[in-house]
Model the fold of this input.
Amino acid sequence: MIAEAGHYALVLALALALIQSFVPVIGARLRDPALMNVARSTALAQLLFVGASFIALVTLHVNSDFSVANVYENSHSMKPLIYKITGVWGNHEGSMLLWVSILALFGGLVAAFGNNLPLSLRAHVLAVQAWIASAFYLFILITSNPFLRIANPPIEGRDLNPVLQDIGLAVHPPMLYLGYVGFSISFSFAIAALLEGRIDAAWARWVRPWTLMAWIFLTLGIAMGSYWAYYELGWGGWWFWDPVENASLMPWLAGTALLHSALVMEKRNALKVWTILLSILTFSLSLLGTFLVRSGVITSVHAFANDPTRGVFILLILCLFIGGSLSLFAGRATSLKQGGLFAPISREGALVLNNLLLTVACAVVLFGTLYPLAMEVLADFKMSVGAPFYNLTFVPLFTLLLLAVPFGPMLAWKRGDLLGVTQRLLAAGVAGLVVIAIVWGWTRGGSALAPLAIGLGVFVIAGAVTDMAERTGLFRLPLATTLHRARGLPRSAWGTAFAHAGLGVALIGIVCETTWNSEYIATMKPNDVAQVAGYDLKLDGLLERQGPNYREMVAQFNVSRDGDALSVMTPSKRSFTTRGSSTTEAALLTRGASQLYISLGDVTADGAIAVRIYHKPFVLMIWWGPVLMAFGGMLSLSDRRLRVGAPKPARAKQRLQPAE
Amino acid sequence: MRRMMSAIVALMLLALPAAHAVQPDEIMSDPVKEARARDLSRELRCMVCQNQSIDDSDAPLARDLRLLVRERIAAGDSNSQVLDFLVARYGEFVLLKPRFERQTMLLWLLAPLLLAGGGFALWRQNRRRAQEGADVPTPPLTPDEQARLAALMSEDAKSS
Done:
């Protein structure tokens, strides 16, 4: 009954989306406010029905209703409640339902908070949202219905893949989807602007908060996924340049570029055409990511060819939206007039450079991901593109970008003074050089480039600090004035500083981890001691434990340094009976920003166990960086100027009075 | 099962099987040679895995390849000889860093070409606009916008 209700709610949502696809557009043509306002009601009603459908699926999973195929294939009655819920999006059908739910959520938000938008723009935006929604509802209903029943319900489910039974799964996919799907809003705004044939600085002001919100979620989602892989997969890697990761990195790069170009458009009414194009590209890359992961084309071209229904359907959606939007762009873009002249050396110029580098980096990732597929299909040439390729191509681009980052916010609009900014950044540059010298002198081994890269990270952080110090008059003015100024600065200025500093923090973490990470691989017996990076790890013993739906073998390590006992670490290996598979649960010990990391291998015949122990210096900075970036984004989002549907307290009442 | 697999891979951006890679019994006694073996392993693909290097993978094939790499190093091969040996055996597919040749030229040259192309386009646009001169005039307001502006202005007048 619940399954049927969920299914039906989804069908109703499709019907509403179809109405929302056409009626508001007709309304905009006829300049009929009533018809245009239909979009608002249908968007909210859609959210209601998709929400109901999603809750229905969650309920089915929580109740372990194994008469539903999706629950049977991905759940188990003994699974802890939290994983019963997160298991809803731990599979294809459920995750697509989450995708459309989030799409409906964003549509609903625009409908609810978009009161300050011109009526026809809102109608067009919501109509474009409905086009996307209709396509994906059809996709779910035709190829991936999560509510299908099984004729003879089995008594027990097949359980969720154990690797996915982790708190990381609870957070990572929804975050990522909020990011992916959030970019649909800027896409819809872009298409609406093209349909209306006009676009101005106000447009950029409306789009920026939505883009920023999506970007924050995507940033956190990617960082979350990276940390999850780090502790769950058991060999301490945190980024693999896997096509599936690239699928999330590409929209992030394009989205970051979009944030910056929309800024130019809002402030200076320039880069309009480019901003529109980026909005289209960013969401197209989100769709491409969905296609790449959903169709199985990444695993192998042949897997795709053998079971093509879903892949072909998404490919059609992809072609329709990307092709359609780009043709519309090609047809209409020339009619959008450029404004706002600027000299090459200026804030605008810096942001253009940012866009150029980010777009090229994005293109490199795109090519790296698709090139092997294309070569296999077109030239019958099998090749691989992996981490070493990206290290050689992506890293130089980002180095250039990071060198330029501190200059950007300090250059004036329209015409900047590069020499002046260089002088003002002198202290930051010196800080970077000093750090390079210190790191060079103190460390042994590793690449000669590592100290330089750390110096670059310090320069980026110091640059952000310099910018804030100058704006607040730190050390020049009395402290009270500085504090007053700091409070008075727009939050978006603080946001920029935090986000840019986050880049530097992440860079330092990445360089330290990859250069000075130490590793100990051996078989150990109880009472053996391993020495890693100055720590002594003594294996006390092994014991067996029973978990709710698994058995685990736990190794207990006593960690000490210079004779002082620090902590006990308990890495384990879990075997899940239902699927007959196992996971390694690494043990982590955090010391400042560094971590000790132990993961277990197999037990040998003589009772010894294979262990891998890592010391990862400053590894946590890799994720603190993105968290700082996201925090900067949130500060910026809370800026009054950008707040979604910012209230206008003093004027709210007067608005109702007739104009004189 | 494949559907399940693709779903997992799909959803979890990083769903690679839990791996243990280099086993204690594989490690070479000479630390310099071992370090070379590790560096090479990172550039070689485990052909039955999804985009994993043999250094990261615990598939039996990856182990065989790791042992083979160490065998070649022990036999006195240079790094490039080891790579040549593996390419001759398994094809270019085994290299995670494709070689620069006819088929991969576009891939390697993409970034410099795009940077140069983008830079050139920007330079040309900048020059053209400098010649054209002043800002393009903004289009006049539509009657709707005129009304909206009037409403906003009167609000401002009242609240101040």
Summary: Residues 644-660 of chain A have pLDDT under 50 and may be disordered. The first strand of chain A starts at residue 518 and ends at 524. Chain A has 20 helices and ten strands. Chain A touches chain B through 90 residues (CB under 8 Å).
